[in-house]
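Render this sequence as a predicted structure.
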Amino acid sequence: MNHRTYGQTRDCRGCRFWSEMIAQVRGGGPVEAMCLAAGPHAGPHACQYTHGRMTCSAWESGEDGAIDEPRVVDDEDDT
């Protein structure tokens, strides 16, 4: 099940700073992921596990996925 909404909601599920790689489920509860907002983007939940329905002032659209989402790199263009 995909818990990310790719910017469609103004909560952690839609935020680009909600980690794709650092997540947990405790006691059968909801998915919690690390908030990766840092520096000038840091909000009140930076470097903490948050559940998808939380909100804060650091929200930025995650329409392209999380900032730590794995990407396929095309090495053929390197010469």
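Summary. Strands lie at 18-25, 31-35, 49-51. The chain is about 0% helix and 20% strand.
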